[in-house]
Specification:
Number of helices: 5
Radius of gyration: 17 Å
Oligomer: single chain
Structural class: mainly alpha
Distance between the termini: 17 Å
Helix content: over 70%
Number of strands: 2
Strand content: under 5%
Largest sheet: 2 strands, antiparallel
Order of helices and strands: HHHHEEH
Shape: globular
């Protein structure tokens, strides 16, 4: 197996394992899924661990891509929801906690960063080095 493909697979496993662990936590506890600091940090285990893996494998390029993805992802989310609201008079989604005008949230920023790193790792497979 190609090392670049292996890196992408490991990144994806780490990313989703955090969300699976968080889901099992709530199944075991049989609690409602409410947002608090502990639950949010548990939710971020996968994205932050996968980011650490990407930084280990890619170095500073991963840090730059993470930061760029955070800003571009949040900007795109904001523009899409604003545009839909202006054109159709209804919202696609609404954030209530730490929101930026209800269109995006500061809590979603690490997820956008992880998505950008996944795209970078995927692009590495198809680009010649």
């Amino acid at each position: 197996m190609d090392a670049k493909l292996a890196d992408l697979i490991i990144f994806t496993i780490i990313l989703f394992s955090g969300w699976i662990i968080e889901g099992f936590w709530f199944d075991i506890k049989r609690k409602k899924h409410r947002l608090n600091v502990k639950n949010y940090l548990l939710f971020l285990v996968g994205p932050l661990a996968s980011t650490g893996f990407a930084i280990y494998k890619l170095g500073s390029a991963a840090v730059y891509m993470f930061i760029l993805s955070v800003f571009l992802g949040a900007l795109c989310e904001y523009i899409v929801d604003r545009s839909y609201t202006v054109f159709f008079g209804a919202r696609l989604w609404r954030y209530y906690r730490y929101s930026i005008n209800g269109d995006t949230s500061y809590l979603a920023l690490p997820i956008w960063g992880s998505a950008g790193l996944a795209a970078l790792l995927l692009a590495r497979i198809f680009l010649k080095s």
